[in-house]
Amino acid sequence: MADSQDSIPVNAAVDALLRNPADNLNAITETADLFKALATPSRLKMLLVLAHGEATVTHIVDSTGLSQPLVSQHLKFLRGLHLVGVKRLGREAYYSLKDDHVAHIILDALAHTVEGHEH
């Protein structure tokens, strides 16, 4: 990344990745998987619900208007990417984001989209 006033500050690990992406294919692949997870409106709606805190499948269904089978399918996909975790209490399963960075990515993208429409 060229040094300029418009450059985004990055930490040392990201800087090393930027300088030599060929040696960091695993991190690049995982990042692409994150963007795939965010690429569908259904999963994005679900992740927004989880950005507010833990939620059951029923709560996610009610909040998003998605069907229960679709929510369950997407949760399985998101768990496989380690974006969502589950905690079981009795018969109830509570889902949550495993990493607040995911919520920040979504909120930054939404802010960018909303601000872009205001101009």
General description of the model:
There is one protein chain. This protein is mostly helical and 119 residues long. 61% of the residues lie in helices and 10% in strands. It has a two-stranded antiparallel sheet with strand order 1-2. Helix 3 (41-51) crosses helix 6. The protein starts with 11 loop residues before the first helix and ends with a helix. Mean pLDDT is 87; it is low at 1-5.
How would you describe this structure in keywords?
two-stranded antiparallel sheet; disordered N terminus; 119 residues
Unreliable spans are: 1-5
Number of strands: 2
Mean pLDDT: 87
Shape: globular
Q: Report the total helices.
A: 6
Strand order in space, largest sheet: 1-2
Beta-strand residue fraction: 5-15%
Query: Main sheet, how many strands, which sense, barrel?
Result: 2 strands, antiparallel
Task: Return the string of H and E elements.
Answer: HHHHHEEH
Structural class: mainly alpha
State the helical fraction: 55-70%
Q: Nearest-angstrom radius of gyration?
A: 17 Å
End-to-end C-alpha gap: 28 Å
Protein name: Metalloregulator ArsR/SmtB family transcription factor
Organism: Brevibacterium metallidurans
Keywords: DNA-binding, Transcription, Transcription regulation
Pfam family, one: HTH_5
